[in-house]
Amino acid sequence: VSQNAQIWEQKLQEAVRCWHNFRECERIISDWLMKAEQLISEKHIDTKEIVESHKVFFERVNERWIHDLVQTAQDLRNCLPTDQQRTIVNSVERLQSKWKEVLSFAPLHLMRLEFRLDETTFHQYIKDIDKEINIEQQAFNKQENVDAIIARNKEFFVNRGVVLEVEHCIENMKKIAESYSKWQPTDNSL
């Protein structure tokens, strides 16, 4: 009887350990997925730093977490009666499915972020260019010194590198849109 009690105690301790390990793996993955979904649904992304933080988050995903979940689930199932194993299997399948979905969506999310950031920068440059052209037009209409207007134009468009920056934005957006269309051929939103 004493020996049987010890065997049952060991089995119980093993089951508790397996449950703890499984729940811990499940928590880590659930927390990561929740954070990933928050980042993906974030609407106001207007700085390079925010885009970089999203990149870092998705690039630092640890594939070992999902492997550990599967392993701890298997260990736990070995401790449970057959009729109680289905909930564990369902939980693992649900998390694996969500994991794959988020990881397949992450590159598209990052491309959209980078595109929108370049697009915002591009629009700001266009506003600045429009403002500068209006100022130069007004100066010309007031018959101000043409050489001074030309010098101002050269300073703004050439020396400050505005044209190069606009071209850089357009080139980046073009590259991102081409890459995006390879992933999502039916989505023309970029």
UniProtKB/TrEMBL annotation:
The keyword Phosphoprotein belongs to this UniProt entry's keyword annotation: no
Identification of the protein by name: Muscle-specific protein 300
Species of provenance: Lionepha kavanaughi
Any GO molecular function: actin filament binding
Biological process terms in GO annotation: nuclear migration
PANTHER family in UniProt: MUSCLE-SPECIFIC PROTEIN 300 KDA, ISOFORM G, NESPRIN-1
GO CC entries: cytoplasm; meiotic nuclear membrane microtubule tethering complex; nuclear outer membrane
Protein localization: Membrane
Domain of life: Eukaryota
Signal peptide start and end residues: none
InterPro entries xrefs: LINC-complex_assoc
